[in-house]
Amino acid sequence: MNRFTSWRKATVSSPVRNLINCGRIKTTKAIAAAIRPEAEKMVTLAKQGTLAAKRRAYRTLCCHKLVAKLFGEIGPLFKDVQGGYCRILNLGNRRGDNAEIVLLEFTRLPKGKEKPAVKHSAVKKESAVIDAETVKEESAGAAQPKPQKKTRQYLPEDQKSGKKFLGGIKGIFNKKDKPTP
Question: What is the 3-state secondary structure (H, E, C) of 35-104?
């Protein structure tokens, strides 16, 4: 990436933080290629588990919670693996500028972040049918009164506040106030 050093470090460290926090991120191919070595270095530090390694990880992550997550959850997942902690999956091109979009993720995800075994569309269709049937049964069993629509209450002219429209700016353009030549 052709950027100033501080800009490049910020461009790399922010997605690394997001990757550790979420387990996978969607980004461009160029940024993913720059992030991947840094993320793998963080996992290597987590595998070491020493205080010095935690301090080095904190220099990049700048957050105690992320360092704790890295050393507590992600590091033990890769204890027996020698490398290849991240993978890049191509998703296609972005519509606006035709940039290649990829998914950068850890090869082993923490519990609760795994991919679902069943496709969501099949599960949603079944649950939608069940929900519709249960709603029909519930509505037929107990007749509930419909809530009243809220109507807007307008104050009479004598109870309105003394404020004019736009703070009285309308009077500036009124023809009655202007003297005729």
Answer: HHHHHHHHHHHHHHCCHHHHHHHHHHHCCHHHHHHHHHHHHHHCCCCCCCCEEEEEEEECCCCCCEEEEE
